[in-house]
Every structure is written in structure tokens, then in C-alpha cells.
Design brief:
Chain lengths: 211, 613
């Protein structure tokens, strides 16, 4: 049978562009001159870079959490606007301490590409949501029974956050992240946390490269 | 040669006259998320594909669902590339980089190439040529199927590691000036056949690390085009070598081989004022299934050398040509060696008509006659098209008859295959005399297309009668099997803004014939189809969503939802792609003893000179 979470992810990805059409203004776009329609969308594309730093704690309760206890980690994400939302690159390292003595400590690094959209809310608050896919890198520390080794697996997930501006370019944000690592027995992570978001104009060389 | 011929006539009209041909550009292949050359078979309208380990893909053209025989031919830049080995045509053996492909065209009906009849059709591949004084083109693809044990390997939930697909990398460097061009390329690939369904067999025949299949493929081309018109001389050398598990049909299992292919040749075209005058080529090919250094049981050890020479000349409204082949086979099995020659003549006529009312028509006839190993062959194909401005109505008919049924080497290989079996103590017999089989195939198709509104609808029907086929039933090869296969196809395409929708469905079934014929024809599904939506939400960003589905054969019906995303950077010089195959992770297999395919993700990076992506 179809795997329901992946079905949901597929539906999100496939219908994404159309759904996101309502995203007219966002923090990643606000430095651009106002405008509407395709021309404005074209002008906004890759016009800004938003750098997000987020401290995240894990609050999931799955089989993985019976064997390992995920620690706090920090996520760095880079976002840039496109006509139907934004594109995102993110990295998220954290460590997982074993709950049993014969298990290795597992250090992990989630690397993601994502697409999402922003919605403006009252009080200049911004709701940001998106879907992600990427590679989840796992390093197993040496134990008495096994040498150190590494492995990687595909991961999918999503994010949702609220952002509040402090200045024209700087804001604070808080939200959640969900990641499912597609191992044979899948690993589910639910992260909650908060941090900052800094938006600035894209350098010309970078915008030229992205276009 | 054919390129020059096309240039000699009005290109659009001739393309219309080609009937059931389906052309895919390099951009189409990129958008669809093709990561290895053989993946293009999944895009071929009406075809079905099966695979055991995910690397060698067997393509079955519409109307010709029989395995273990060369049903279609690969032609690269108008040079036939005889990939067939014991009835397996593995496109991933091609000594070609995926990023060197300019376009592919599927002729999915009986066809003639230099007088050689192909009952399933022809795959034409046109390669790209350098356009700058010096340029470099490179691509790297890596991917994996999901389902590794992850950290659970240290717990009670441990499971088998899943490693495929591996990687596929290539680089091409070339250049051109006013009169010369040339390039050199190299491709290296690794594939992990680590699926639980096949892993035990691989370990048994090749050792614990045999799941790793490796390939290398170098290629060099040099061309001289001294005149501004369509005249050129091209020399080429290319080869590939794969360390793989070759599936031997009569045994029903894999055997480790070092699978090698080398081809070198020289072709020349003499044209004037965009008109073909004459063309010729000499091509030498070495096809090998070498015994692997691994624990090979049974041990294949084959080598076939072929030298083919052909020449053709324009005779006004058509072309006339001749072809000769010298074959030599070495094997350490029961038949120590053999050699034979083949010769043939062929002709190609076409006529284009236009009327004052804007309606045009085209008629194309091809004839081929050949003699090989004491057998005579004769084949003819014909097509007719009519169209006018705006709406294109196209009717295409093709009829072919070949004597003998397939090329003589096919039966030679089968006999050699039996020799291997008998050496392994497996009794094999033939019911009736094994001889060059005879068959007659009639293929007709009807296509309608409306192009003014960038929408099209095509319908096709085909009926094929096959006689004197020899088919395998357990350890017995039965000859004189007859049957009729009929089918139809429907495809539609439409452009909505920046999105294109394209869908096709093909149905076919046996409508007469022996029980063995019907059973063998079940190798291909009665129903197969693919629907895709390709959209460009913003400049230089493409998203392609496709669903493939087919009805049951000897395996259960299956479907797969695929998603491909690509983004160009730096003025379309750099391309990044992300391909999701079987997004819904709905496990399926395409071969009874083959891998079970789940969600697989591949990442591609490609450097494209001049931003021509």
C-alpha cells in the first residue's frame, strides 16, 4: 500500500506551485519595489537572501528514541524567493546519545533542499511553511563491538514557523521541523525551536549565478 | 547518411512521413529525469520494460513482445550498433555518455535499416557535436534507493543494506573549427545490485562483493568536413566494458561476465547543395562475453567480430545501396569457431506531393534483400502521410515481410547457448529442426494530429502476424509457432501556459495462435501507459511529474509515480537535477526473479558548454 506520509509529501510537491500562488509578500521579498503579476515575480526572483539560524530540540517519541536520545542542535537555512514561494537549503547537525551501553553514539547531519511559501499575518507576522527532501548523514562512533562507520539515507520532511520583524532586515522566528529518514524502519524526528532570520539583498554575482 | 538525406528534402514533411516515430530531445530527457541511457526506454511510447538488477533493461516494443531475440536495433548517428548478445540489447552497454545525446527517436514498428529488417523497430540516437573551439561537458549522477537499516543495524530491527543505484559519471572534451571537429569522452559507472531478491544468487555465482557492477566506456571521434555543403568524413572509436551478471535466459539465472564492446569505423557522406550524392561506411565491431575471473558457473566465453561495409547513392527520387558483413565467432564451447558472410541490397524511395488547397502528402517505400548463411531475406516497408496547414492528419501504413524470421546470428547464438547448458548437464532439445526461421509481419498504424493549438491527439492500430517462430518451453525449443498480435495506442499532448501534459496508453493482445505463442507473448503487458505533466514555474526551473503503469504479465501489475526537478544556473551552463522514482514507495518488480523497486532518489550535476542546456 502507499506510504501515507510520502503520499502527502508528493501531493505537497506536485501541487505546490499552484497552492503557493497566494504568497504575495514575504520577508524574503520585502526589500523589492511593490508590484504585481509576473513582472513583479520576475523582479523578486533571487532578489534577497534570508539567513536563518535556529536552535532545535527534538521531541519525537518513536522507536529510534527508545534507543537514542537526540540532543539539541542548530539549523542553518538559506532561503531565496522565487515566483511561487521560496527555495531553501538547510543543514542541521545534532548528536544522539545511546540509551543502552552497547549502542554507538550517533552523530547526524541533515542536509535538505526545500520549497515553501510565506503567508503574511496580522501584526507584521509571517507564517512560513515548506516541504524538504535531502540526505541524512549518520556517523556511528566506535564501540567495543564495532568500529566507527558512517551511512547516509534519504530524508523528507517539512517545516512551519512564525516570524516577527525586529528591524527592516532582522527578525525572530520560532517553529517546528519534521524529518522522516527513509531507512527500512523509518526514523521520525519532530523538532521545536527558535532563532533569528536576517534578510539582505542578493549580491549581483550570486543572483546572476542563480538565474 | 540519413541526416544528409533528410536535409535534402523538406524536413518537416519527411518527419511527418516517418509515421510512428517518436522524437525526444536532450531537454526532454533531462526534464524526465533520465539518469542512465537505458532509462529512455521508459519514455518510449508503447514499449514495456523489465529488469532484473536495475542496470540491464529489456525493452519490448509494441507488437513484438518476445524476449531473447534482437527485436530492435540501436543506430548512433546513422551507424548501426549491434548490441545484441544472446537476445539481450542492453542500452547501458552503449559506449556513449548520456549528456552527449542530442536527441533520440523511436521507430516503434517493423523497420528497415540498410536492408536489415527489425521486427520491433529502431532506436535512433543522434549525438551532439562540439560547437566551440574547445569545450568540456561533464555530468555526475549519484543516487540510492531508500531502505537502509540505518542505526537500527545495532538493534533488533537490523535489515539488509540497500545501496543501488550507485553513480554514473562522464566527461567529454572536444572542439571544432571550420573544417574539423572532434571529441573524446569517458564514462564510468557503478551499480549496486543489492536487492534481497537477487543478492543470494549474486553471492553464489560471484562471491560476496559481486553486487557491485562496474562499467567504463571511452569514445573518440574525429571528423573532417572540408566543404560547406553536406559532405564530411567521420572516424570514430568507442568501447565499453562491464563487469556484470549476465542473465542467460535458457538457464534462467545470471552468470558473471566481463562484457565488452568495441567499435571503430569510418563513414563519409558526399553531398552538394543540400542534396545527398553518395555515402559509405566501414565499421568493425567486437562483441564479447568473456569468462569472468570470478567463480563463474557456467562460464560464458564468447567473442564475435563483425566488419560491415555499406555504400549508397542517390538516384534522383530515392537511394540505392548495398551492404556486406563478415562475421567471425570464437567460443570455447562445443563449436570452437565459425564465420560467415552476409550481403544485402536495399532501396529507399519517397515522393512528396502538394496541392493548391494546402494539403500535402508523402509516400515512402523501403526495400531490402539479404543473404546470410544460405538463407534469403526480403523485406519491404511503406508509409503514406497527408497533412495540411494547421491541422495535421497523418495516416501511416507499414508492411514488412522478412525471410528468414530473424537474422542468422540469432540462431547461432541459441545453439551456442544450448552448448553451454549441455556442458552444465542441463538437457536441452529442439522439437523440429533448428533453422533460420521465416516470418511475415504486417504492421499498420493510423495517426491523427492537430497542432495549431499546440495540442495533439494520436491514435494508432497495429496487427502483426508472425509465423514459424521458435519459442522455448522449459528445456525444449519448439519451432513453427504461429500467432497474431493486435493492438492500439492513443496519445495526447497539450500545452497549458508553461505546462505541457502528455499521456499515452497502449493495448495489445494475441488474437490467434498457438498456446506457446500466447504464453510467450505475455512477456509484455496487455496495457501500458504513461502520463506526465511538465511545467516551468519560473525561468530555468522545471518540474516533471509522471505516472507509469502497466497491467500484469508474469509479474503483477504495477505503477510508479516519478518526480523530477531541475534547475539551471549560470546562464544554463550548470544544471542540478533531483529525480524521485516511485515517490509513493509502492514496491514493484518488473521481472519474476528481479529486484523489488522502492523509492529511489538520484541527484545530477551537469556542466553544459555554452549554456546550450
Amino acid at each position: 500500500m502507499w506510504n501515507r506520509p510520502r503520499f502527502v509529501l508528493a501531493a505537497v510537491l506536485i501541487s505546490g506551485c499552484a497552492v503557493a500562488a497566494g504568497a504575495e509578500e514575504s520577508t524574503t521579498q520585502k526589500q523589492e519595489a511593490p508590484g504585481g503579476g509576473d513582472e513583479a515575480n520576475t523582479r523578486r526572483t533571487f532578489s534577497t537572501i534570508t539567513l536563518e539560524g535556529t536552535a532545535l530540540g527534538e521531541f519525537g517519541d518513536d522507536a529510534f528514541q527508545d534507543y537514542w536520545e537526540p540532543g539539541f542542535g542548530g539549523e542553518i537555512a538559506v532561503l531565496t524567493p522565487v515566483p511561487h514561494g521560496y527555495l531553501e537549503l538547510a543543514v542541521h547537525p545534532f548528536a544522539n546519545d545511546p540509551t543502552e551501553p552497547d549502542l554507538p553514539r550517533v552523530r547526524t547531519l541533515g542536509t535538505y533542499m526545500g520549497w515553501g511559501f510565506d503567508l503574511s499575518l496580522p501584526q507584521h507576522t509571517l507564517f512560513r511553511a515548506g516541504a524538504r527532501a535531502g540526505v541524512f548523514w549518520m556517523l556511528y562512533d566506535e564501540t567495543a563491538d564495532s568500529p566507527a562507520q558512517d551511512e547516509n539515507e534519504v530524508a523528507i520532511g517539512g517545516r512551519a514557523s512564525l516570524q516577527y520583524p525586529l528591524t527592516h532586515s532582522l527578525g525572530i522566528q520560532a517553529g517546528m521541523r519534521y524529518a522522516r529518514v527513509l531507512t527500512k524502519k523509518e526514523i521520525d524526528f519532530i523538532f521545536l525551536g527558535g532563532g533569528f532570520a536576517w534578510t539582505f539583498s542578493s549580491p549581483d554575482w550570486l543572483r546572476g549565478f542563480l538565474e | 547518411m540519413m541526416r544528409a538525406l533528410f536535409a535534402a528534402c523538406t524536413a518537416v514533411l519527411l518527419i511527418a512521413a516517418r509515421g510512428a516515430a517518436q522524437t525526444l530531445s536532450a531537454d526532454d530527457l533531462r526534464r524526465a529525469g533520465v539518469v542512465r541511457i537505458a532509462d529512455i526506454l521508459s519514455l518510449a511510447e508503447g514499449w514495456s520494460v523489465d529488469t532484473i538488477e536495475g542496470f540491464t533493461l529489456n525493452g519490448l516494443p509494441p507488437g513484438f513482445p518476445f524476449k531473447e531475440r534482437p527485436s530492435y536495433l540501436v543506430v548512433i548517428d546513422d551507424v548501426p550498433v549491434d548490441l545484441d548478445q544472446l537476445g539481450v540489447t542492453s542500452l547501458n552497454r552503449l559506449p556513449l555518455c548520456l549528456d552527449d545525446i542530442e536527441s533520440v527517436q523511436f521507430e516503434s514498428q517493423p523497420a528497415l535499416v540498410r536492408g536489415r529488417f527489425l521486427p520491433g523497430g529502431v532506436l535512433h540516437i543522434e549525438t551532439r557535436r562540439p560547437e566551440e573551439p574547445f569545450e568540456v561537458h561533464g555530468r555526475h549522477t549519484t543516487g540510492s534507493e531508500t531502505g537502509d537499516p540505518g542505526p537500527y543495524q545495532f538493534t533488533e530491527f537490523n535489515s539488509q543494506n540497500v545501496e543501488r543505484f550507485g553513480f554514473d559519471s562522464s566527461i567529454t572534451a572536444g572542439g571544432t573549427n571550420d573544417t574539423f571537429w572532434g571529441d573524446a569522452s569517458y564514462r564510468i559507472a557503478r551499480h549496486y545490485a543489492s536487492d534481497e531478491a537477487i543478492l543470494d544468487r549474486y553471492v553464489a555465482i560471484g562471491g560476496p562483493d559481486f553486487r557491485v557492477l562496474e562499467k567504463s566506456a571511452p569514445s573518440v571521434r574525429l571528423a573532417w568536413a572540408p566543404f560547406a555543403s553536406n559532405s564530411h568524413a567521420t572516424s570514430f572509436g568507442r568501447g565499453s566494458r562491464i563487469d556484470e551478471g549476465f542473465f542467460l535466459g535458457p538457464i534462467g539465472q545470471e552468470t558473471p561476465v566481463e562484457n565488452a564492446f568495441q567499435q571503430a569505423g569510418l563513414e563519409g557522406v558526399l553531398g552538394r547543395d543540400d542534396r545527398l550524392i553518395a555515402a559509405g561506411s566501414v565499421v568493425a565491431t567486437v562483441n564479447e562475453l568473456d569468462a569472468s575471473a570470478r567463480n563463474a558457473t557456467p562460464a560464458l566465453d564468447w567473442r564475435q567480430r563483425t566488419i560491415e561495409g555499406s555504400a549508397l547513392a542517390s538516384i534522383g527520387f530515392g537511394i540505392l545501396g548495398a551492404r556486406a558483413e563478415i562475421h567471425d565467432v570464437e567460443s570455447r564451447h562445443s563449436i570452437e569457431g565459425d564465420s560467415w558472410t552476409s550481403a544485402g541490397v536495399f532501396g529507399h524511395w519517397e515522393k512528396l506531393n502538394s496541392s493548391l488547397h494546402g494539403t500535402s502528402s508523402g509516400t515512402e517505400v523501403k526495400l531490402g534483400a539479404e543473404r546470410s548463411r544460405g538463407e534469403n531475406g526480403l523485406a519491404v516497408t511503406a508509409s503514406h502521410s497527408r497533412w495540411n496547414e494547421g491541422t495535421v492528419g497523418k495516416i501511416s501504413l507499414a508492411a514488412a515481410q522478412m525471410l528468414p524470421e530473424e537474422s542468422a546470428p540469432f540462431w547461432y547464438w541459441r545453439e551456442q547457448g544450448f552448448a553451454v547448458l549441455e556442458e552444465e548437464g542441463i538437457p536441452v532439445s529442439a522439437e523440429g529442426e533448428i533453422q533460420a526461421a521465416k516470418s511475415a509481419a504486417v504492421d499498420g498504424s493510423l495517426e491523427l494530429r492537430e497542432t495549431r493549438a499546440e495540442k495533439s491527439l494520436q491514435a494508432g492500430v497495429f496487427v502483426r502476424a508472425l509465423d514459424d517462430l521458435a519459442l522455448q518451453e522449459n528445456e525444449t525449443l519448439k519451432t513453427n509457432e504461429d500467432g497474431v498480435i493486435a493492438g492500439g495506442s492513443l496519445s495526447a499532448s497539450a500545452l497549458f501556459g508553461t505546462s505541457r501534459v502528455h499521456a499515452w496508453v497502449r493495448a495489445q493482445d494475441t488474437i490467434g495462435g498457438s498456446s506457446l505463442f500466447r504464453e510467450a507473448a505475455r512477456a509484455a503487458p496487455r496495457f501500458a501507459g504513461r502520463a506526465a505533466v511538465s511545467t516551468t514555474p519560473f525561468s530555468n526551473f522545471d518540474m516533471d511529474v509522471a505516472i507509469r503503469a502497466q497491467s500484469s504479465t508474469t509479474v503483477a501489475a504495477w505503477s510508479s509515480l516519478d518526480l523530477n526537478i531541475q534547475k539551471y544556473f549560470a546562464g544554463r551552463r550548470l544544471r542540478g537535477g533531483l529525480a524521485f522514482q516511485n515517490v509513493l514507495d509502492n514496491p514493484y518488480r518488473t521481472h519474476p526473479i528481479g529486484q523489488i523497486t522502492g523509492l529511489t532518489i538520484a541527484v545530477q550535476l551537469e556542466w553544459i558548454p555554452g549554456g546550450r542546456g
